[in-house]
Amino acid sequence: MELGVLRGASLLLCCASLVCAALPVPQNVTLHTLNTNYVLKWVWDVDLVQDDARNVTFTAQYLAKFKLKKPKNKQDWTSLCESTPEHECDFSSAKLHYLGVWLLRLRAQSGQSVSAWIVKEFCPDRDAAIGPPLAVNVTPVKGLLQVMISDPLTFSNGSMKELLPNLYYFIVYWKMSSSTPKCNNITSANKLVILPVLESWTWYCVRVRSLDDYYKKRSFFSPTYCIQTDGHTPYWQIVLYFLLSLGLSFPLFLGLCLFIFRAGKLVMNTFFPSVPLPAPILEYLGDLHSSEMPRLLPAEPELEICSDNLDILIPQPQDTEVAEITLKVHLPAETSQQSGRTLSRHSSCDSGVYSTEGSGPRQIELEGVKVEKPGGKVQGVEELDEGVQDVSV
Predict the structure, then answer these.
(1) What is the pTM of this model?
(2) Fewer CB within 10 Å, N side or C side of the chain?
(3) Is residue 217 a contact partner of residue 200, using CB atoms and an 8 Å limit?
(4) CATH for 19-127?
(5) For the chain, what is the mean pLDDT?
(6) Which pLDDT does position 179 carry in this prediction?
(7) Pseudo-torsion of CA 159, 164, 166, 168, nearest 10°?
(8) CATH H-level, domain 135-228: superfamily
(9) What are the start and end residues of each CATH 2.60.40.10 domain in the chain?
């Protein structure tokens, strides 16, 4: 009885193995690496399968190698590409630890038919290739060449020197004009390198690659950069450059001077005109800037003032040719009541009144008014200028 049970179990295992092995395994499974970019690629031959099994998909998984010691039911394989029709799977996004050891496996399936697993062991520190510098910048400096190197980058744009502390660079340079160039080289772990012993005003070509000696890693070379070295400029070239620059800048200087001259002339004509402004405009502008400036015309409307009585008081002059005359104008009652206020104006202008020497009484004519001096009182006004109220001479 026990023998029959064992035979039945073995038969089931054989059938299961035949079902699992119904599809062939993928061919030429390779892992393409550069820095921390890992891409698993394979080849699938359609002619190896029957017509009903041509729609084949693939599944790729990874597992840390130390987990193989656990039972199979506890091995936690992580599927990265699940049932993909592509013939490659990118493991870069899995962020495999650079110093760890990993197992990558791949199989094909079509419906219920599957192939056997193909397992590859992978250690990035040992197996992953390193790339050349990200960029190389070559510039001439005082007859030499300065080489600026950018580190190769990881998948997350970090420097590879964080994973490979002993990474350094191998720089090769040669003279481009030579028919049989003699290559010179220099190694450096720095990102800024000065190439020594170069000829002035000569073309040189430079290329760089990355190296790591622990696992003998060598990258391919960067693109070749060619540039000419500089040197001390001859004096005749300095003089020639100066004359050329002077000849080019002189017309510009003249144009600038002409522009400044015309602009200054325009400003002077605008703010300081040669023809003076009319008196009313000047008076108006003066009123804007100073409210205390004397006015020729009253601010309020003029009033006609008429008077029948005129008193003139003339003090005794003391050795002066011009007597001081005070005119008092008495407004009529009607005019005072209508205006409600007394308007006065003083003038210091010369009235044209002159005095004559002598001790006797003298008469002074003031626009038709006869005055008897001293102490005389004159009545009668032939004509009084309109708008004049008080006059002082």
Answers:
(1) 0.55
(2) N
(3) no
(4) 2.60.40.10
(5) 75
(6) 75
(7) -50
(8) Immunoglobulins (2.60.40.10)
(9) 19-127, 135-228
